[in-house]
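Retro notes (design track)

What went well: tokenization of the new backbones is finally stable.
What didn't: we kept losing track of which sequence belonged to which structure.
Fix going forward: every design gets posted as structure first, then sequence, in one message. First example under the new rule, 337 residues:
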């Protein structure tokens, strides 16, 4: 797949869908393999793009700088880089100045994410066949391991109350878990095989991907589900919508789409009233929007293009997204109602 897209961005989700369609591939291993394959095409840098399209380069290093995450106050950016030969976590000022390496290990550190109070960073450490979650102070002190038992953890995110939400394969089934930042009080939230968990803006709901409850057009597609962030059964007014197929619930999760194609990467609107997501219907990937109760499905983009990674503006009136509609991947903005 990378050979077919020389010198272009190939999304993680594209790679997983085509190369490992039914597998759980942990983030650190995937990032390392992509890094090795992409060496011949230059290195990755971090940029800031203003809403008017002006682009500002924040990093400039022969190494690969990846996975930027803003601090809650907007003054710092955490990122992962292999500047010393192994991928570690760095923190720099929001203008790209004064980068500081805060982790030091022979293993790979990726996916930094800031705590709600801006004092700590959670990240993945990968090596020896495992991928575990660690937490460290923003000044590089007091590093602690959060998960254990040789899990394969992925996609750590802080909840509003300071716990850590993540996806992992445990007890033979992939699911969504939450754990205190000291490694205690582990709770499995999802009762279905879940991935790509995203918290709602108020922290009360989780949107995620899982295989649909029933086949549609002879195939079981990935659909969007929703659950309460405390694991309780969630009720929805209205109902899931789609062009075909039945919908319903499984355990504590409600399926909110029923489409004859796979739906991926939910992104919440700032008010939590709707979500944008992508639907893959080869040879195109387009963006859709749906109300959070599963009603009012609408298509936002069309055409034989790859329109991906939708993200709402702070006021919810626009969506930024990545598209290859001009031949290579660029960032676009569209208005939404």
């Amino acid at each position: 797949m990378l050979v077919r897209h020389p010198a272009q961005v190939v999304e993680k989700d594209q790679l997983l869908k085509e190369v490992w369609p039914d597998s759980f591939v942990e983030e650190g291993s995937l990032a390392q393999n992509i890094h090795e394959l992409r060496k011949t095409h230059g290195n990755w840098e971090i940029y800031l793009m203003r809403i008017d399209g002006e682009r500002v380069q924040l990093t400039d290093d022969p190494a690969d700088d990846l996975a930027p995450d803003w601090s809650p106050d907007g003054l710092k950016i955490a990122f992962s880089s292999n500047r010393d030969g192994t991928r570690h976590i760095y923190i720099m000022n929001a203008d790209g100045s004064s980068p500081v390496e805060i982790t030091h290990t022979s293993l790979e550190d990726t996916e930094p994410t800031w705590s709600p109070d801006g004092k700590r960073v959670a990240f993945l450490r990968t090596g020896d066949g495992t991928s575990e979650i660690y937490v460290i102070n923003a000044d590089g002190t007091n590093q602690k391991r959060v998960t254990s038992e040789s899990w394969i953890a992925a996609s750590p995110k802080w909840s509003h109350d300071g716990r850590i939400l993540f996806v992992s394969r445990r007890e033979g089934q992939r699911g969504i878990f939450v754990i205190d930042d000291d490694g205690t009080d582990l709770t499995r939230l999802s009762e279905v095989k879940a991935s790509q968990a995203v918290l709602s803006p108020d922290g009360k709901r989780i949107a995620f991907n899982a295989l649909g409850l029933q086949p549609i057009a002879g195939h079981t597609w990935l659909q969007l589900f929703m659950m309460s962030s405390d694991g309780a059964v969630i009720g929805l007014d209205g109902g899931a919508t789609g062009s075909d197929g039945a919908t319903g619930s499984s355990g504590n999760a409600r399926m909110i789409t029923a489409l004859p194609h796979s739906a991926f990467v939910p992104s919440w609107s700032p008010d939590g009233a709707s979500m944008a997501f992508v639907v893959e219907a080869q040879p195109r990937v387009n963006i859709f929007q749906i109300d959070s109760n599963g009603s009012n499905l609408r298509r936002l983009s069309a055409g034989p293009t790859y329109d991906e990674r939708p993200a709402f503006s702070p006021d919810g009136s626009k969506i930024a997204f990545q598209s290859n509609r001009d031949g290579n991947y660029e960032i676009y903005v569209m208005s939404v109602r």
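Added context from the reviewer: The chain has two domains: 1-188, 198-337.
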